[in-house]
Amino acid sequence: MSRLLVIGCGGVAQVAIQKCCQNSETFTELCIASRTEAKCIALKEKLEKAGTPVKLSTATVNADSVEELVTLIRAYQPDAVLNVALPYQDLTIMDACLECKVDYIDTANYEPEDTDDPEWRAIYEKRCEEKGFTAYFDYSWQWAYEEKFREAGLTALLGTGFDPGVTSVFTAYAAKHYFDEIDTIDILDCNGGDHGYPFATNFNPEINLREVSANGSYWENGKWVETRPMEIKRVYNFPEVGEKDMYLLHHEEIEALGRNFPGVKRIRFFMTFGQSYLTHMKCLENVGMLSTSPIMFEGREIVPIQFLKALLPDPASLGPRTVGKTNIGCIFTGRKDGKARTIYIYNVCDHQECYKELGSQAISYTTGVPAMIGTSLVVKGIWKKPGVFTTDEFDPDPYMDMLNQYGLPWVVDENPAIVE
Description:
By secondary structure, the chain is of the alpha/beta class. It has two domains: 2-158, NAD(P)-binding Rossmann-like Domain (Rossmann fold); 166-359, Dihydrodipicolinate Reductase, domain 2 (2-Layer Sandwich), CATH 3.30.360.10. 37% of the residues lie in helices and 26% in strands. It is built from 15 helices and 18 strands. Strands 7, 8, 9, 10, 11, 12, 15, 16 and 18 form a nine-stranded mixed β-sheet that branches. Helix 2 (37-49) links the parallel strand 2 and strand 3. It is globular. The mean pLDDT is 94.
């Protein structure tokens, strides 16, 4: 039915690609492209050995190069491009999709690789002053493509991972089926898994460590409130996981939900961390290992956080070691038919079950499955309209149905504990 180009072949990409092969009625042909084609070939051979009916091919591409991307897209002629590469590469891939007139899908919003770039920093500092939060990542760079995609008649679907992605769909679903007015949204991301290492990250270390070491922020009464890193801590008893410490972070779906649901009074995002993780991270930060600024070392330029990434375990290798479960969802408060209401929509995912099915840990699984779902809805025309959109801007029902179908069943608790 459709031909898909997937850019990237890391842990999330490998889940998304395998799920595309499970959905072979939608995806009949698929090309896996990455800077390192050997990984693409290995996955292709694994899937072909398992008997996938999807016609697979591979390619080498530098996703930093619009020219290389355009050459590949024109040669393969896909119906859509799924970007599961690095967030640094979102804009080059969007540019290539525009030039080739093909729909675009990703799982995380743009952030720069070089935060010292003078041109980027001037725009960033203006945004900090205007909006009131200092995170390096935000939607403004991709929302700026709205008119271009609309005029080209193309769809750009941003952030169809779990958070962002599923959490935003949960919001649209709650607004459609459970509330006349939503007052507050608390997004809770709990990883109760144990990989056995003293320190490791469950997704790309560059992105993960930059995100959690930054200032926190939340949306309240139409404006941003910024906090120090890990300043706000809460304890929550997560279904099937147990009691965990969680900390308020800045997260990109807050920005989109604040724009698209202007009646919501407060939106917060919390993520769980153990004390050992936080201690390691603070030590690394104190000695400069989380820096994105290049330094000279033995006559060559290196970026400390990229060097650290090379030392840490590859997140894609954590699957066989990781035990336990994740619980990710949203607690909503508001009113329905004039009566106060609170609900909690969440998914629980088991690390070992993910590994048995796809050779993945649950963090990659919970991001890769929604990447396939969002892409499927775009290529089938169900989520298809010109412009740039996040997942809360479409009918949530078909997405929610596919979550149940493809391994991420959800629960609605109508009497949950709330977060103070």
